[in-house]
TrEMBL record:
GO biological process, one term: translation
Originating organism: Medicago truncatula
Protein's recorded name: Ribosome-recycling factor, chloroplastic
Annotated spans, Disordered: 63-84
Physiological role: Responsible for the release of ribosomes from messenger RNA at the termination of chloroplastic protein biosynthesis.
Localisation: Cytoplasm
Length: 263
């Protein structure tokens, strides 16, 4: 009874305010604390620390950055961070090459090509679609194209779209198809086409270099995490990728210029 009385008295306000001036002794594995003063001894029940607080402290300690032997903080890096950076750069460079191919296909040369009409947009039934989706284009000879619509009702719309394109073609109706003769290029036309090829090539180079710069910026952010040798190797791989794509773009443009010059 006396012990119970002492415990209940320990929760009184006056006794609690006296605690800071006491010498507090803690018994291991016991919630009861004994506060001793000059003239009396009081027992105070201290509830155990909740488990979630203990666990959160442990988790916080585990989540701290580890330190190497030299005392420098380090952080774990995903093993695929380098390949991801290169893959992203490669994807952007490939997109630049695709855009280049589309632009070059719009330029007419003196030779017939099945893909030279692909970029033409045809409006039929209130819907605009690429010519390649509503007609089959084939090469009859080096100077002649045949355009066969999947739906004969669209023949007139196909003819108008081809005439309105910047290719300078004037197709004629041949039954349920169109025949387009490729006229020879004039000197002025060749010069104009070559200028467009040069511009397209430069635009592609700039797009590839922008992709390279984005990759380099991403690599710089790893400067405090990855070893210098790994960073240099990654930078070299991105540079090699850049050179490869630029060379490919230049080769494609040179082939187009040669095609134009041959009329």
């Amino acid at each position: 009874m006396m012990a119970g009385y002492i415990v209940r008295r320990a929760f009184g306000c006056r006794n609690l305010f006296r605690l800071p001036t006491c010498a507090l002794h803690v018994c291991e594995n016991s919630p009861v604390k004994f506060c001793m003063t000059d003239d009396t001894t009081r027992a105070v029940i201290s509830p155990p620390m909740p488990n979630f607080i203990v666990e959160s402290r442990r988790a916080f300690a585990k989540g701290r950055k580890s330190k190497d032997e030299g005392g420098v903080s380090t952080a774990e890096v995903p093993p695929n961070v380098g390949p991801n950076i290169k893959a992203s750069a490669s994807s952007q460079m490939e997109a630049a090459m695709t855009a280049l191919s589309v632009e070059l296909s719009k330029l007419r040369t003196g030779r017939a090509s099945a893909g030279m009409l692909d970029h033409i947009i045809v409006e039929t039934g209130g819907v605009k679609m690429p010519l390649s989706r509503i007609a089959l284009v084939s090469v009859l000879d080096p100077k002649t194209l045949s355009v066969n619509p999947y739906d004969p009702e669209t023949l007139k719309q196909l003819e108008n779209a081809i005439v309105s394109s910047p290719l300078g073609l004037n197709p004629r109706t041949d039954g349920e198809r169109l025949i387009a003769v490729i006229p020879p290029l004039t000197k002025e036309h060749m010069q104009a086409m070559n200028k467009l090829v040069t511009k397209s090539c430069e635009d592609t180079r700039q797009s590839i270099r922008r992709a390279r710069q984005k990759a380099m910026d991403a690599i710089k952010k790893l400067n405090s995490i990855l070893p210098k040798d790994d960073l240099k190797r990654l930078e070299k791989e991105v540079d090699d990728l850049t050179k490869k794509f630029i060379k490919t773009a230049e080769d494609v443009c040179k082939a187009k210029e040669k095609e134009i010059s041959q009329g």
